[in-house]
Amino acid sequence: MEKIKTIARPTLKTTACDAGCKECQTSCQSACKTSCTVANQKCENAKRR
Amino acid sequence: MIHKFKFKDIFLALDINSGAVHVVDDEVFRLLDGLENSSAKEALEKFSLVKSTAAKEVSQLIAQEMLFTDDSYITDKMKNNEDSVVKAMCLHVAHDCNMVCTYCFGEQGTFAGSKCLMSLEVGIKAIDYLIANSGSRRNLEIDFFGGEPLMNFEVVKKLVDYGREQEKLFSKNIRFTITTNGLLLDDEKTEYINQTMDNVILSIDGRPEVNDNMRKTVNGSPTYDVITKNYLNFVKKREGLYYVRGTFTRNNLDFAKDIEHLVNLGFSNVSVEPVVTDLKQPYALQETDRDKIFEEYDRLTDLYMEKMSKGEAFDFFHFNVDLEQGPCIVKRLSGCGAGTEYLAISPEGDIYPCHQFVGNKDFYIGNLFDTEIINKQRDKFLNASIYNKEDCRNCWAKFYCSGGCHANAINISGDINKPYKLGCELEKKRLECAIGIYAKTIE
User: What is the pTM of this model?
Assistant: First the structure.
């Protein structure tokens, strides 16, 4: 493409499943304790990597 | 839904429901004007009338589900979290503190109760409860918190030993973390923590005058000199993850200088967060501070990129965004996990949805020593997904922030499903900076 460069692929849909594996870190156990960001958490599902 | 924004000299377009991120030229950027909440069909109809390369490329991305993607793949089951697993705990091992920080949400460590330390018996009961309620989850988390957890360090050590025994018996992997104010962080504790803790949070606000204005000892003495000495000693010996973590208030809206100060001291992992407190407090952030704070995040972005270009990169917690390998959609829907997968335990064994609710009787869940713990709060927290929050449902940042902090929502608006507005604005600003930095980095 000339006018658009994709820098992150559309991955969210591929992660969809009913319950998730829930192995990843709980947000507030990281560094915040007062403000929640989830997109900076790492996925722990080895099958996705 | 899409979100578009300018970052320095580049234009970005985010496809919210797919997670795709694009750098676009100014023509495409203008073409997307006013279409933020359009469906793919509506967008395609508009572009079918435009004969240009820009329209053609946008249409191609729509067809590939990389722009204007809908959220039909998100099922009701995903939206309604029914999982009863507990996998993370915040152990308040000390409701006592050797500091008196003006903005402390724990009321100087006591959380509206009396000063006390967690007994080994309560700590063991908490670990047993965590393991018993963790289902098939292997990775569990325990944070030693306070007050000041180093004031009860012998119990911390015994609980780590106990956790290590139990994880073997039940095939779990417990990650221990600790949050400290640093006053008691001597060589012995440094060595122990560096050997056992997966992550360590070291509290400090930044420049000496900023830190000492808010963070004093119980005798009113400044703390900066003692804690920086202890932290630098600690970090020098640490191989694992750590963050120096500060709070900024209305008194230091130039907080990028505090972050720069911490980085220049030699700390490479930094998190500085907006204070959350009663809006009547003189140091509380107000809506009118928003533009000033935005400018400060821009200054921080410049500092971050300048350091990176010089080979002196540092990690700012809120500028970390994993755009392709971050959490799954279910995690992003369910949010911080407070009151569901995450619980806080007081020194007496009382259970609360998270550390910010400890001592608030309205959010008392039960006690570890009750034979049957009836969690009347659970439904409230289980149902607090982003699709049940009107403000989140239509927000472009919903899958990045996941609905924000429940405690902030309740403290400010009185409603778990009504997020703290200024907090949302700041979160969105930080996300734009983070995504923009990533785009510039790979340019």
Answer: 0.95
Which pair of tokens denotes residue B86? 């507990």
User: What are the backbone dihedrals phi and psi of residue B423, each rounded to the nearest 5 degrees, phi first?
Assistant: -60, -40
Given a contact cutoff of 8 angstroms between Cβ atoms, the answer to whether B244 and B262 are in contact is yes
Residue of B43, B33, B34 lying closest to B67 (CA atoms): B43
Pairwise CA distance, residues B302 & B363, whole Å: 42
CA B257/CA B251 separation, integer angstroms: 13
Helices (H) and strands (E) in chain B, counts: 17, 17
Give the nearest partner residue to B331 out of A2, A20, A32, using CB atoms.
Answer: A20
Residue of A nearest to B104 (CA): A34
**DSSP string over B342-405:** EEEE-TT-EEESSGGGTT-GGG--EETTSSS---TTHHHHHT--GGG-HHHHT-TTHHHHTT--
Q: Within 10 A of B222 (CB to CB), how many other CB atoms are there?
A: 15
Q: For A39, which of B60, B322, B408 is closest by C-beta distance?
A: B322
Tell me how far apart the alpha carbons of residues B273 and B245 are, in angstroms, rounded to a whole number: 8
Query: How far lies B199's CA from each of B16, B44, B313, in Å?
Result: 31, 48, 20
Residue B9: count of CB within 10 angstroms of its CB: 7
Query: pLDDT digits over B94-145, tens only?
Result: 999 999 999 998 887 888 888 999 999 999 999 999 999 999 999 999 999 9
Mutate to test the interface with B, among A5, A32, A35, A47 (most CBs of B within 10 A): A35
Q: Find chain B residues with C-beta within 8 A of A24's C-beta.
A: 139, 327, 331
| Mutation for B interface: A1, A3, A23, most B CBs within 10 A | A3
In chain A, what residues touch B3 (CB-CB under 8 Å)? none
Q: Inform me whether the C-beta atom of residue B431 falls under 8 Å from chain A C-beta atoms.
A: yes
Residue B441 in contact with partner chain A when CB distance is under 8 A: no
Q: Yes or no: say if B28 and A23 are a contact pair by the CB < 8 Å rule.
A: no
* pLDDT tens readout for residues A1-49: 999 999 999 999 988 876 778 888 887 767 777 777 788 788 887 666 5
Residue among B217, B205, B271 nearest B243 (CA): B271
Tokens for B100? 């008196």
Rounded to a whole number, what is the distance in Å from the CA of B163 to chain A's nearest CA? 17
H or E segment to which residue B162 belongs: helix B153-169
Beta strands B10-15 and B21-24 are: antiparallel
Best B27, B336, B385 residue to mutate vs chain A (most A CBs within 10 Å): B336
Strand locations in B116-158 (E)? 116-117, 139-145
CA atoms within 13 A of residue B147's CA, in its CB half-sphere? 29
